[in-house]
Amino acid sequence: MLCKGIAAAQGIALGRALVKVEETLSYTRKTLAADQVPAEVARLKEALNKTNSQLEAIKQKALRDIGEAEAKIFEAHQLFLEDPEFVGAMEGNIENDKVNAEAALEDVRDMFVGMFESMDNEYMRERAADLRDVSQRILKNLLGVEDTLVGDSKEPVILVVHDLTPSDTAQLDKSKVKAFVTNIGGRTSHSAIMARTMEIPAITGLNDITEKVQTGDMLIVDGETGDVYVNPEQELIATYQKKLEEYEAQKAAWAQLINEPSVSKDGHHVELVANIGNPHDAEVADKAGAEGIGLFRTEFLYMGRDNFPTEEEQFESYKAVALTMDNNRPVVIRTLDIGGDKELPYLQLPHEMNPFLGYRAIRICLDQVDLFKTQLRALLRASAFGNIKIMYPMIATLKELRQANAILEEVKAELRDKGIAFNEEIEVGMMIEIPAAAVIADQLAKEADFFSIGTNDLIQYTMACDRMNQQISYLYDPYNPAVLRLIKNVIDAAHKEGKWAGMCGEMAGEEYALPILLGFGLDEFSMSAPTVLRARHMLKQLSYAELQAVAEHVLSLESGEEIRNYIKVNVLDKL
Ligand SMILES: C=C(OP(=O)(O)O)C(=O)O
Ligand SMILES: [Mg+2]
């Protein structure tokens, strides 16, 4: 059986399925005799300690493998275990009501969750969700239930789940999980982006894979095509085993290119840079051969915590990235892009019918100027330590660009007055992710130093198709002629004004996109770190001169399917 989903993270995996459905934890409410109380309190404390150690281990793993922002999620969970009101209430229930620890836990949890949820405040609702999570973990420890997605199966497995939260993804151990496949989610969802950083093949949006597959079934996961084969024929297994070996060999060959320049067969140079969410990612990108950072999503510094990061905290993060990217390598740092699918509970954004079309990103920053200025000050100060460039997200009009630049000029003047160093020549560019901006790119190019095309959003806004909704994913197509024409327009407009154009949407790292974008003349390609060397390898085999004609022809084709097919036959199959 073949199931088709969304190729969320590249790579191939063959192995046995482990289908994981959320288990219900049952226990009996007991009334204790007075002399049983001390032992019950001790049992609770033991479970709390165990929970704390588990969370500490997960936090350290997240810090090592993914990043600080993700690690903070678990730190917030740990705080509950030290909260005297929460812990004291549970002990009180055991002592006064003479109930067992499980019952005390659930009563206290329900009381706090009810209280948080009744506050009609996004931040408190998040706290309620956190408390549910922690309580579930404590309950498992009281009941002696294993806390692991994969248990202790001897063979590494392919995880089959309804959905994976970012915290689930952070916990995955690459030596135990070969790949994961989920019912819901898209290619640009947070856990998909994390899977790519962790190099775990992943397929999302399979609808009902948890029902079609049983634990122990043999699976083939093709992270290039989004195909999952369930109990395939021996012949197909052999084909994929060969593909897997080839893929591993290819990876070894790509690794040879780590210090090579990114040039095409005929000597055309482009920049291959990485997308990051925190300073640790920059180190990963450096080791993966990135020539710089094309997108630092700074909103991750703001997420998973209780209040705004200070200017000092931000300055340290930006400076750290600039220093990692030594030798004047570019570091494009995007100002806060919160809203849409990225919530910030303590900012208390209004509830909206269409958050992706709402109060988000630069719209918030131009409205809450102090918030914006704090970030700009930190960015300018860090620019004294490396080749930092500032980038605004979600610009729709020339007026917004001018407003943002005017605020930036104010901040620069304040720093000059105080004699604080920054790079006076700092480049200031903008994302092109709203069709309106793509259409007036000629006007914007006169006032922005560079463009970076954010296809993740540009596609959803051009096609009126939610990037998270797999039901209409046939519309979410980077190769749709409308999307490609906008991209071409943006690149041409930048070049006409002598500016450079890059791309930091996920499309920039796609095999089919590289020849087209190269032919269009894109100057900078920003992608997940593990994709950089593959792109460099491919680039070396491509001729810029030939691809200009190919790309020109692509613009006359009528559908994404036709375009992909044309690229396959005329470019990819010939490599
Ligand atoms: C890079 C982009 O930004 P994000 O994915 O953070 O919205 C984009 O929209 O393409
Ligand atoms: Mg975007």
TrEMBL record:
It catalyses: L-histidyl-[protein] + phosphoenolpyruvate = N(pros)-phospho-L-histidyl-[protein] + pyruvate. It is found in: Cytoplasm. Its cofactor is Mg(2+). Residues 252-542 form the PEP-utilising enzyme C-terminal domain. Its EC number is 2.7.3.9. The keyword Kinase applies. Belongs to the PEP-utilizing enzyme family. General (non sugar-specific) component of the phosphoenolpyruvate-dependent sugar phosphotransferase system (sugar PTS). This major carbohydrate active-transport system catalyzes the phosphorylation of incoming sugar substrates concomitantly with their translocation across the cell membrane. Enzyme I transfers the phosphoryl group from phosphoenolpyruvate (PEP) to the phosphoryl carrier protein (HPr). This is Phosphoenolpyruvate-protein phosphotransferase.
